[in-house]
Amino acid sequence: MAQARIFYQEDCNVSLLEGKKICVIGYGSQGHAHALNLKDSGCDVVVGLYEGSKSKAKAESQGLAVLPTAEAVKRSDIIMILINDEKQAAMYKKDVEPNLKAGDMLMFAHGFNINYKLIVPPKDVDVTMIAPKAPGHTVRSEYQEGKGTPMLVAVEQDATGHALDMALAYGAAIGGARAGLLETTFKTETETDLFGEQAVLCGGVCKLMQTGFDVLCEAGYDPRNAYFECIHEMKLIVDLIYQSGFAGMRYSISNTAEYGDYVTGPKIITEDTKKAMKKVLSDIQDGTFASEFIQDMANGQIHFQAMRAKAAAHPSEKVGAEIRKLYSWNNESDKLINN
């Protein structure tokens, strides 16, 4: 398989955005970062929000123009959609589709709605993606420090013949080219992103930590010890891997821990685990997961809310809340939950 290209500052021409109005739809984690970074890069930006959005005052206080979504789209040449996946199709049908013009560029930070054909744009517009590989607050803080966050770039539809160049210009304007823009496709980004979230980063890691916590508690150990060993210290290990890979992490831990890593990891993550991961990937690839997700979102989120409530009731949550009070950053979790 040929290696995908990575684009940097010298490969991008931000001046292509001159004279273009950019609409950022949504002002959440990614929305605020894109809009503010674009503004600071000298771009003409408007934020599109639904009537009555609580984000309007915040966006305006940060120096951004805000319009109702349909009006913002109508006035713009580049439209970046940054609202929740499950809300995009209905919003697109109502506010975006009637106001698109030939030659516009429709952009996404995740390929979900395009890949599963929940949104089918007209043939006379460009369809591209810039997907930061970090939360929005990191995209913003790295930009402000003169650095950048790695991002993915993809072109699904090139109506103008300049879709890639324009997408690269956008990626550079929000700081991505400082770190690197990795070329991909909407299909690849969607499938790998969903798989990573479900099998490893969120579903896999959270269940692994909570199960370890349960095993220690059921064996009679103090839940606070269990929390420290199976949940709290996860950040220490992940930070080491983030900084210097698995080898760097193993260099930094004790020989006892490293030996246990080698002999016990394969006992926990077995061939059966790998088979289950392959089934997860298959359900993502054939649309089974997307169909289940969209159906639950459309039916009042009954299953979703039940799972959320069950997860919140896990004993590790109560113990963790008490443990986090011991640290100087004890209010960070409240900020994340309440914002």
Protein described:
The chain has 18 helices and nine strands. The chain has 339 residues and is α/β, with parallel strands linked by helices. The protein has a nine-stranded mixed beta sheet with strand order 1-9-8-7-6-5-2-3-4. Helix 1 (29-40) runs parallel beside helix 6 (136-144), helix 9 (186-201) packs antiparallel against helix 14 and helix 10 runs antiparallel to helix 11 (223-232). The two termini are 42 Å apart. The relative contact order is 0.09.
Protein topology:
Blueprint: E1 6-7, E2 21-25, H1 29-40, E3 44-49, H2 55-61, E4 65-68, H3 69-75, E5 78-81, H4 85-96, E6 105-108, H5 112-115, E7 126-132, H6 136-144, E8 151-157, H7 163-173, H8 176-179, E9 181-184, H9 186-201, H10 203-218, H11 223-232, H12 234-252, H13 255-268, H14 271-285, H15 288-298, H16 302-312, H17 315-324, H18 332-338
Helix pairs in contact: 1-6, 9-10, 9-14, 10-11, 11-17
Classify the beta-strand content into a percent band: 5-15%
Radius of gyration: 22 Å
Run of helices and strands: EEHEHEHEHEHEHEHHEHHHHHHHHHH
Q: Which strand order does the major sheet show?
A: 1-9-8-7-6-5-2-3-4
Mean pLDDT: 95
Name its key features.
339 residues; alpha/beta; nine-stranded mixed β-sheet; globular; disordered C terminus
Describe the structure concisely for a colleague.
With 339 residues, the protein is α/β, with parallel strands linked by helices. It contains 18 helices and nine strands.
